[in-house]
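Appendix B. One record, verbatim.
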Amino acid sequence: MLYKKLGCLAILGFLVPLTAFAQDAEAVNPISGADTGWLLISTALVLLMTPALAFFYGGLVRSKNALNTMMMSFVALGVSGTLWAIAGYSFAFGSGNNFFGDFSAILLSGVGLGPNGTIPDLLFVGFQGTFAIITAALISGAVVERMRFTPYVLFIGLWGLLVYAPVCHWVWGGGWLGNLGALDFAGGAVVHVNAGIAAVVAAKVLGPRKDYGREALLPHNVPFVLLGAGLLWFGWFGFNGGSALAADGIAALALVNTLLAPAAGVFVWTLMDHFTTGKITAVGIATGIVVGLVAITPAAGFVSPGGALILGAIGVIPSYFIIKWRTKTSLDDSLDVFAAHGMGGIMGALLTGILATTAINSGGADGLFYSGSFGQLGIQALSVAAVAVFSGVVTYIILKLVGLITQLRAEVSEEGMGMDLVAHGEEAYATGEGAVLLNEAEAPASVNGLTHTK
């Protein structure tokens, strides 16, 4: 019996330091398996949004430009993703100062598997990288069917480093807007206002397509548009829900709000279509989904589900009428990037300043509706204005610099032929007609390994 008692004491004595060690390890390494798992899934969901955008945009253009339009999204996966790892992350999340990060994490130097909050630091890099990718890809919708592919690639590379990364630092990386108290849960200003303003500038610099205002430039594949919108909505659950950076109640709130706001947006968009045109269009519903998603993005973790419904319903209204108005102007924002993303982001940011509540948002002030104060709304308006001015000016400078290196816009004859063959030597739909046009333009017999014959 004495032997057994001594044995039990020995085992207990052995277990005590093990328990203490486990507690010490948890204190040193607070990484949560649940939070990490949710962010792994969210990162994959957000990455899916870029191919989804390719289908959404690709269906909206004419068939001779479908492949080129989709490639403009897919190439961002490589260009923006690589540059994010090389320097973008450091510029956005390096300590730096109020306006710009630093060079401390160039080539992900010092980034490892240690904790960043309750997730691995490297996972945070990947999650944020998917945001950088899709933000650059969004701009392409304003310049499709006429911008040459090589200068586009050069432009989005520079834009990601010189526009997106600094704005990201301002809001999320310890910069001045975040310190001022600007609320942007998942990228209303950082992603959508930023890309929307850049899109307007790019459309103005390139000028309208040769057929703009002369003939109807109709979508060639509406089912693609619906597929893209549906996949965007699916991926957006990671975009907003993952921005909680934890598998917690705020993530659940953001996910539910990402369901409700677009639903309300589609409902209102459908009513507006019915009462203004008498027709409820598939492209209209797809656009309503996207605008509703954009509008809830800055507010997803800061407003109640009721607030999300109100925000989605109100947020889509200006976008609807801007699209109607834009088609009567000389501004050829081909796929209405500003109306959907720029204006949707502006409305979402401002409505966050009205509907945010500290009952949910412990890190900010109550919005106008709950506090009666214009303080948070004023900060939201300042953040929108600052991002818009910075994005517009620097985007213009980048485009002009790229234009000094290489021609930005395709020739009129190339536009007529279609950018698929001109840029890639491929056709989205192999009818053979494009190949004949390419040969008639005295193109090489073989383009990218594909032989074209009359």
